[in-house]
Amino acid sequence: MDKELNSHITREFWEKANEIHIGKIISEFAHESIIKPSLQETRNGWGIYKLITPGDSSIIYHFEARVLKLNHWLLKKGSVKKMVNGKSHLPESIHFILEFQQNLEIPETLLPGYLEEITATLYGSMFILKHNQIPVNKLVNADYQTIEHAMFNGHPIFVANNGRVGFDAEDYRKYAPEANQSIQLVWLAGHKSRASFNAVEELPYENLMKQELGEAIIQQFNRQLAEKGLNPDEYVFIPVHPWQWDNKLAILFAPDIVANQLVLMGSGPDIYLVQQSLRTLFNISNPEKFYTKTALSILNMGFLRGMSPYFMDTTPAITTWIKSTIGKDPYIKSLGFTMLCEVATVGYRNFTFEKFGQTSSYNKMLAALWRESPASITKKGQQLMTMAALIHIDHENQALLPEIIKNSGFTISDWLRKYLRCYLAPLLHAFYEHDLSFIPHGENVILVLENHIPVKIIMKDITEEINVLNPEVKLPEKAQRIYLEIPDDIRMLNILIDVFDGFFRFVTAILEEYCQFTDEEFWRLVAECIHDYQQENTHLERKFKRFDLFVKEYDQSCLNRLQLRNHRQMFNSADPVSSFQLVGRHQNPIYKYRHPKKHNIESAITTA
């Protein structure tokens, strides 16, 4: 037994991890009106709140908070206190979940599994607190992969966001992004009767394999097949995550292995680092080579992270269509907006499980795709960082965003204008001009900075997380799966929820707490960016009125409620709209800036 493996499990780190996590639980559950703290008084700009557990008035939580726009609860760090019969107790997340189970409405059969994800999330937090102690004044100048592996909170909404159910302690140390350990891919050969390769037209199979494996390894693999009496021309090489091979494929695919439908080749030559998204791998042997994304049957944040071989068949066709649509748009190009295209895929069908349907997790165990690397499309002197870095807070409770702005030499307002131009403007154009929606959360977006100033964004994970919202858009047959039938009022939530609620409200909290820059001022800049976009694209005026981002209020989509209802599968990917948990209404923070003239007057007064 390796004692060092779990050396981060200490009282000190447990208390710190719970302190951070309890604050997040209260903030997000109050945001979604799952719990309703009561205001007792206001002191020095902070509200003093009380929260009594349902069914047991002897357990009371006290904390200090400010409620920002979009009902975002900014809790004062270290302010959460738990009293039981008047005596102080350590606030712990798993106890909080049990105490408020009545509010959370978690099905009894799913509660243990949800608690497992909460505990695993805390386990990861303790690891980060011990091992990833890079202060923000160092991180601000770090390279892409150093920043990627220092992140604490890539998905800020979800309370159970780093469960990774399926990893044991040793797996965690090998394969979790924050462990920052390099790995090699396992390569298999799949018979073409079950395995299929697809790619964009300009990337034939032979060219891809020469790039990813090299001639020597290809010849070695072909010899291995020939020595078994097999014809190499009848096989396709498939990259596999080592955890997936050891824990799933070697066991469940044993019949295929015995029949030589699937043949183990061995490790590939290159070294990779795991990304925040867990199943995506960055090639550090040659950073300009493709990302490799592999199926990984780990339960994390509402889904088993497999990959469908059926979806892989259509991915290159979707990539080709997106490149011809968005990639060639002059306005998009003027903003520098870039997509990392998913250029090739491979999938393997297991006939034993296929009868249980394409959506079964057992039919998503063996597939992979290759995605362009950001290193191949950036210039010398440009810094890459995951957009999640903008809401990163280090182990000393210092935020990275203020450090980035300080190093840029820009004022906060001017830096944010640059950022909004890079990030929000292209999303608006995709929505209004092309009827397209991305899922542009912090882990899906890479920021490109020059001298700490945003110059563009790079969007990744495009084929699995893009939707066409207009039935009149002509899609090739193989791209039909990205069309999503959705009513107008829900369609607007792509910006109002995914961007405003899903990311901007966390940015405003950082600015409020660390920069004394009010959320009112931030939302004025958001409105300014939208008006600037509309004035540059007057031909879309009818759509601006039809899909009005300046509505007074809009439905609140509650992601934690989704996860609480079923932490194993949050929604039906074939019909995600039917799964939405729309509870309550948000007051739109940009409503007061809906008139461009008023917006311009207020802008002039503010900057005078």
Automatic annotation (TrEMBL):
<dbReference type="Pfam" id="PF04183">
    <property type="entry name" value="IucA_IucC"/>
</dbReference>
<dbReference type="GO" id="GO:0019290">
    <property type="term" value="P:siderophore biosynthetic process"/>
</dbReference>
<comment type="pathway">
    <text>Siderophore biosynthesis.</text>
</comment>
<dbReference type="InterPro" id="IPR037455">
    <property type="entry name" value="LucA/IucC-like"/>
</dbReference>
<protein>
    <recommendedName>
        <fullName>IucA/IucC family protein</fullName>
    </recommendedName>
</protein>
<dbReference type="Pfam" id="PF06276">
    <property type="entry name" value="FhuF"/>
</dbReference>
<dbReference type="InterPro" id="IPR022770">
    <property type="entry name" value="IucA/IucC-like_C"/>
</dbReference>
<feature type="domain" description="Aerobactin siderophore biosynthesis IucA/IucC N-terminal">
    <location>
        <begin position="143"/>
        <end position="392"/>
    </location>
</feature>
<feature type="domain" description="Aerobactin siderophore biosynthesis IucA/IucC-like C-terminal">
    <location>
        <begin position="413"/>
        <end position="570"/>
    </location>
</feature>
<dbReference type="InterPro" id="IPR007310">
    <property type="entry name" value="Aerobactin_biosyn_IucA/IucC_N"/>
</dbReference>
<dbReference type="GO" id="GO:0016881">
    <property type="term" value="F:acid-amino acid ligase activity"/>
</dbReference>
